[in-house]
Write a structure and sequence with these properties.
Elements: H1 2-6, H2 22-50, H3 76-90, H4 96-122, H5 130-149, H6 173-192, H7 200-217, H8 220-226, H9 235-255, H10 265-281, H11 288-291, H12 293-311, H13 323-329, H14 334-354
The structure holds Muraymycin D2.
The site of Muraymycin D2 (57M) has 30 residues, from helix 6, helix 10 and helix 12.
């Protein structure tokens, strides 16, 4: 919005020329999203406490989690409020990708909100049925896949990190691939959100890395020089990604150990879906497996644990899945598990950025 109203004034006041620069608007969006969380966090937590929207904690989880019963949750509503407003304020609102990302983020946020409300109203950890949740997620992701596949200048080619000459064309299968990336990312982030600040760290890192890749993908000269697919208009997605990273930092102010608030499915589902959608738009889909390596590791640990559990009639590979609970069961303190996962996430983010030159 600022771009729309202030940039035209640059003909009379040169200072407003700064709004044409995506880098400037990325910083504006990140700081705005952070400040919205920073200043509204406490009042929001008081509002949630007043309405008794407290976390329901399962009985079969780690004993250390029983004390978390009643912690305010659904902080994701404030995260979404922050991301949407920072994006509307700082992006060029004529950009189709921005409206697509906002729609899919709010679609997944609605799924999460319904799930959270059902858990809280029923006072148990069973919200929406897994099947119902999955169907709604697939519908949302399908809208992204079809929109992008039919978008002028977009196609079904994949880019593979480190291998600049390999661009397999998936054709119509790309829509299925997009659904897999978005739904997989949404659920992987959801599973990761199981310790104080655990999911917020990697989300901030992923949002930051994808802000860089979005900027480069939308830059005709730099994308050519770096041999990455040029996606006209992808530069604005960097502003959204920056808002997502800024919101994550702001939420971390309250979600760090001991958490004053959890984000709920209303936060984790849309954050994962948004990262998956950004990965698809910038055609850096496989890179998400590197940047979001923590999310992949957590989801894989669950799939391996559940599969082995069923195959062996009750045996386990890990002390408990997702992976973060395995280390808790080994006696690691919660903050130590979280910070060590952040460290891994930072290294993976650096490796992902390194692929820019290694291709
Ligand atoms: C998403 N939700 C947290 C919070 C957060 C198939 C199975 C692996 C599914 C999985 C599951 O239920 N996942 C749901 C993880 C929950 O967090 C809430 O959910 C939102 C995110 N969706 O925002 O509102 C709990 O996580 C803790 N938490 C924090 N700090 C935070 O900042 O401490 C969350 C955020 C919260 C709180 O305790 O209540 C969750 O863990 O449910 N199931 C599991 O993850 C369970 N694992 C399991 O059953 N493993 C078995 C299976 C795989 C065979 C095994 O390994 O043997 C674990 N989770 C729980 N209890 N709650 C262990 C059992």
């Amino acid at each position: 919005m600022l771009y729309y109203f202030l940039y035209p004034l640059s003909s009379d006041f040169a200072i407003f020329n700064v709004f044409r620069y995506i880098t400037f608007r990325c910083i504006g969006a990140a700081v705005t999203a952070f400040l919205i969380l920073f200043f509204l966090g406490e009042p929001f937590i008081r509002f949630i406490r007043h309405h008794q929207i407290g976390q329901v904690v399962r009985d079969d989880g780690p004993a250390s989690h029983f004390s978390k019963r009643g912690v305010p949750t659904m902080g994701g509503m404030l995260i979404l409020f922050s991301i949407v407003n920072a994006t509307l304020l700082w992006t060029n609102l004529t950009n189709h990708f921005i409206w697509l990302i906002l729609c899919v983020t709010l679609w997944f946020g609605t799924i999460g909100a319904v799930d959270d409300f059902r858990k809280i109203s029923k006072k148990n950890s069973h919200g929406l049925s897994a099947r119902g949740k999955m169907i709604m997620q697939i519908i949302g992701a399908s809208m992204v896949g079809v929109f992008l596949y039919t978008h002028p200048g977009f196609d079904g080619h994949l880019s593979v990190p480190f291998l600049k000459n390999i661009h397999p064309d998936l054709g119509l299968w790309y829509i299925l691939f997009a659904i897999l990336v978005i739904v997989g990312s949404s659920n992987a982030v959801n599973l990761t959100d199981g310790l104080d600040g655990l999911v917020t760290g990697p989300t901030v890192i992923s949002g930051t890395v994808y802000a860089v890749f979005s900027y480069l993908a939308g830059h005709a000269v730099l994308s050519g020089y770096l041999n990455i697919p040029f996606i006209s208009g992808a530069g604005e997605v960097a502003v959204f990604s920056s808002a997502l990273a800024g919101a994550g930092l702001g939420f971390l102010w309250f979600n760090s150990f001991p958490a004053q608030i959890f984000m709920g499915d209303v936060g984790s589902l849309p954050l994962g879906a948004a990262l998956g959608t950004v990965a698809i738009i910038t055609k850096q889909e496989i890179l998400l497996a590197i940047v979001g390596g923590i999310f992949v590791m957590e989801a894989l640990s669950v799939m391996l644990q559940v599969g082995y559990f069923k195959m062996t009639g009750g045996k386990r590979i890990f002390l408990m899945a997702p992976f973060h609970h395995h280390f808790e069961k080994k006696g690691w303190a919660e903050p130590k598990v979280v910070v060590r996962f952040w460290i891994i996430s930072i290294i993976l983010g650096l490796v992902a950025l390194g692929t820019i030159k290694l291709r």
